[in-house]
UniProtKB/TrEMBL annotation:
Organism: Medioppia subpectinata
Parts of the chain that traverse the membrane: none
Family as reported in the entry's similarity comment: Belongs to the glycosyl hydrolase 31 family.
Stated name of the protein: MYND-type domain-containing protein
Residue span(s) of domain MYND-type: 372-399
PANTHER family: ALPHA-GLUCOSIDASE (PTHR22762), P-TYPE DOMAIN-CONTAINING PROTEIN (PTHR22762:SF133)
CDD domains linked to this entry: GH31_N, SET_SMYD
GO BP term (any one): carbohydrate metabolic process
Pfam families: Glyco_hydro_31_2nd (PF01055), Glyco_hydro_31_3rd (PF21365), zf-MYND (PF01753)
Keywords: Glycoprotein, Glycosidase, Hydrolase, Metal-binding, Signal, Zinc, Zinc-finger
InterPro entries hit by this protein: Gal_mutarotase_sf_dom (IPR011013), GH (IPR017853), Glyco_hydro_31_C (IPR048395), Glyco_hydro_31_CS (IPR030459), Glyco_hydro_31_TIM (IPR000322), Glyco_hydro_b (IPR013780), SET_dom_sf (IPR046341), Znf_MYND (IPR002893)
Amino acid sequence: MIGVQGESGQYKHYDVHSLYGLSMAIPTQKLYNNRKRGYVLSRSTFVSSGQYTGHWLGDNRSKWSHMKDSVIGMLEFNLFGIPYVGADICGFNDKTTPALCRRWQQLGAFYPFSRNHHNGWGGDVQDPAIWADIGHPEVTEAAKQSLRVRYQLLPYLYTLFFKAHVLGNTVVRPLFHEYPTDPQTYGIDEQFMWGSVVLFSPFLYENQTEVNAYLPDDVWYEPSVEFVKLVPKTGHVKLQDTWPFPPIHMRGGHIIPIAYTQAINTQQLRDKPISIEVYPKNKSAKGDMYWDDGDSLNTIETNHYNFYEFELLSNCSLHIVVNTKGYTSEKPHIIEKIAIANTLDSKLSASIDGKPIENIVSKDDSTIFHLKRCSKCLQMYYCGRNCQTIDWSFHKNECKAFRGKTIKELDSICLPLLRLYLRIKNDKTFATERHTLFDGSDVCLNDLKTKVNVNSISVEMMALFAIICKQFQVFGFSFDAKELLQWYGLMSKTLFSDPMSEALYLQVLPISHSCLPNMAFVRKDDSLEIRVIKSVAIGEELTMSWIGLHMNRNQRRQELNVSLTVCQCRKCRLHLDKDIDYEDFNQLLDEQKYYWMRTKFAILRHQYIEYQMDSNFMLYLDAIFGSNVLNGTYWSPMDQTIPAFVLSSICYSENIGYKVDTTSIKANDFGFEASLKLKDTAKHNIFEKSKDSERLKLLVTYYTENILRFKISDAFHTRDESSLQSDFPLLRKPLKKIDEKLRKYRFNLNNDNFNIERKNTSTKLFDTSIGGLKFDDQFSQISSYLPSNNVYGLGGKTHSSLRHDLNNKTWATYGQHPFYTVLENNGNSHGVLLLNNNPKEYTLMPAPAVSVKTIGGILDFFVFIGDNPEHVIQSYTSLIGRSRIEGNENYRKSSDGKNGNIFVDIINSFTSTVSRLIDPLNLFGHKVNPKSVSSSDLLNNLKNLYSNGIQFDSLAIDSDDSTLAIPARKALTEITGKRGYVLSRSTSVSSGQYTGHWLADTQSTWSEMKNSVIGMLEYNLFGIPYVGADICGFEGKASAELCLRWLELGAFYPLSRSNHKSSTGESQDPSIWADRGHPDVALAANISLEVRHQLLPYLYTLFFKAHVLGNTVARPVFHEYPTDPQTYGIDEQFMWGPVVMFSPILRENQTEVNTYLPDDVWYAPNAEFVSLFPHKGYVNQTNPFPFPPTNMRGGYIIPMGYTQPINSQETRDNPIAVEVYPKNKTAKGDMFWDDGDSLNNIETKQYNFYEFELFSNCSLHIVAKTKGYTSKKPHIVEKFAIANTVNSNITASVNGKPVAFVESRDDSTFIHANLDLNAGKEGQTWVVDWKTADNTCNLN
């Protein structure tokens, strides 16, 4: 894209395209919000867009999966700082169903941004009100009731948006944000919360009548007819379809404002009374409410708003504090009702600030106060500590209104959920009245409730507060924890002195996922050292700071050493702001009482760090995935209890893992074995939940000069090993001793780690010094540093880039393809396979590093050391088995087809041989479980079909079971006696021996087309070169432009198949587009397929090399140019073998491609042949022909179809051409040829293989290296076409015999030799010579 933008055209559109939505939102927001607030919505957003706009989740479809995915999108955009987000309810495109729309209305009412938005062009109206008129009143009722609940919750929702604005909180959040220490919440994405209180569990699946929800271990309430009731059970619970809105729960310990009556918008809400709902936990609760006029600008900056805080105390007293009071509404702001849940039904009396409340209801385990007579009370107080108190009690003055168990001493779980509300008096002692209690967990720090001198424990208390909290509120002002502690450092022990007030209220906000344990403290005598620590991702550069308080020179010297030690422990680099020596550093400290020193830490790996606070306190920081979580630390300063700590499943500490037992190493002719012993520090680590095996066995086997295997298993217990290895050809061969001098690798054992090293460069290919080896029954982990950032592979998931993102990206694989390759910085390459049948997870980290985790089995790795990327794939396929010879394509495009139980693909009306492709699972007459299909059943059904006249020659398996390919291949071979081919939607390691692969059921979208290039390249890395996607997409409706570009691209998939479409979709056969008024689409398909068919002899040769050598067929550009860094990330171009490069158009409205051509000789097609392409590097190529921009690489010779064949059979029956693309006047190439159908033709040598070589004296040699096949018809080379020659009068000969027809024109030479290759014998050489009239060579 070469379009430019900017006032002076200074920006390429390509560079700023992603900023479009943001750049439009900013002026739109400024223009629209010049008088009132309003809101802006944008479909396109970027980092920081949340300042200016909300977001809707694009043009979704009316599908159950899209509704489910909208929950994830809503949660993700809240993480991105855009909380005003929602999806088009009921879907934007396609036709919805009543059942889907009903559930979506229920869900969508609780999107932060709730809108029913549908495609107006041809789509049915989906407005909620219309459903009753068309016979589905239940849809309308669901929408109506769900929206009523939404409007009742608007005061609470509005408060959440206020907090998002001033504090940066999420509005909608995942459960793990509120329960970061509960692993059960980590993967939940079908439930969500509004703030910290309201939990929604929507219905997301068709015909679903109950939700399997998860309620964390807490106090929960659910709606009742009039209010709420206590939920008796937590954990995994089944929720029924009780209400016309989704299942909702309210979290105990909270107070929220809601609408008292049913308002239909926020303006009505302001004019009507509100209610306060109280959901107690341990007889207490807290909450708040924000209020303003809803329209004015800058209300926060001008304090033109109100903010109220609510607190329920355990003595039946509810406090309402006017924290900020800058707005007075025209109408009274009435609290009509206060409802308190979970109370005993009884006769009550109540008062507000001493004045009796008359209307009290106590029933259904709830207490409700109606306060109409106090309608203006909230407007009577200004900002400050003025507060209203609502007290109630039994007539007998007994405060027993709450149910619940007696509070007992809590374990380590209590502290992260701690809420502190301290009142510290002027005498610097802790008061013993109720204000000193730790609400919700008041016995967790029971020893501190007695009168203790504040000065003696202030350091510890401040340290505790900083660790568990991200933010403080002091005197109504908010402080970041770091800022507050800086203030404390400067004020020393005067923090608790408050000359301006009778008391200091210090409120520590409840911990959440974002609560950073980013402070570490060491108390030394009367000083407090504050070290600021922040957990970051591996490789991240981060500025850190530390301060020394009241330290002398020796103390500072010691502290500097401590900092450096910490730096080393974290695998960090410590940088000073400027170059100063140690004495200069101390001099600076002497000059300033509090000197802040800037440092830079480059975190090289994840690490648990210990800091000894004092004899009573130890803090562990969790840097897992950069997640900043403090897991269950328990502080008991009085009894010196060791902290209990729940360890996450990933750790890279030097204190865990194994040591090598050096006495156990035993070498043999094929490698060695050794024993690994669990470290003592890991064995006695109280922070571990898992139980690691005490001793492991390490077995290292050298298979070839460039392939080794290492297995880590339990030394005493047998574990599951992959059954796939029984099918690996290399493992069926006897081991041979490998000469040490020939091995390209070295396996190094260290004390507590090992590495695999490339001998000639000393590059560490697998390096476990990162730490973190774990091995237990249900979880194993091994991690390694990587030698570069260029990582590829790990198949089974759709990837949006070929080169992996190393920013802590995790990929899960089950069977599939747990194989990755790494392109090293010097162009060498290696690959790693984990052979394990259990679910696995690969996390790629910026170090660069990789962490591999699995839930069972052993750690069984193969490492392949290659000279280049192709060499790695050759080695890999030598282990797992190589693909069959494909490319025998006996079909052409057609608009004919058949529908029925048996899917017959590519039948046409022509008399030429056709491929008949069937799905064997359809032969059973009903839907079958693939795992229940035996080989004999499959064979018998196929035999019956074949004998009844369906002469199929290929099979397609539409199943998730990759093992079906093996019996399918055997059945096909036995029945037909011919090669044929098998296609499978599901594959795993070694599947390429039996089957090709189509890239599952793609969507008809531009992104899916682009990603298909990546999938095609990846499966070539996995040894499955016969691969392609469903051209134009399987699901959805393709536009004419999309299908045109996809047909151009898809013609050059190794497996090219169009019109594979869902049963409900329109036909996308290439020929049908002309009838629809788009002849350009049909033309693009025709011409692209003609080019493909001309290239079939070359493609067939590539499949032969994949079969015998293990090469890729379609390959990334970096496979041919591994020393050119510009190629490492290219995934929108690809090559067929080493010669032909395709640069397809992959984006809407795109007319040219910015292609990268490495530093080499390149040719481009012209009207008849090719011409020298004058450019290299990044070049813009237009699309002059109705097929993708294509380039041929110089120095190569390829065979081509001379005429325009329609399939490979016609190619065999017609003459071919040999095209020569010289580089420095030379070129080489080859060709494989056989009958296309016979079995075992390689083993029996029933094939021909020819080599071509051009010499600089205008002599072209053709050598029959193998000649075991003679076709029934002559195998004619009609024409030799040599590019980049000087136009001149020439003569030519073949083996000395003159050639009658020779042309020299358009900078090319054409020799019409009519050479019959059938006439030769093995070893024969044909020599084609040509010369000019003056007896010279015309090669340029």
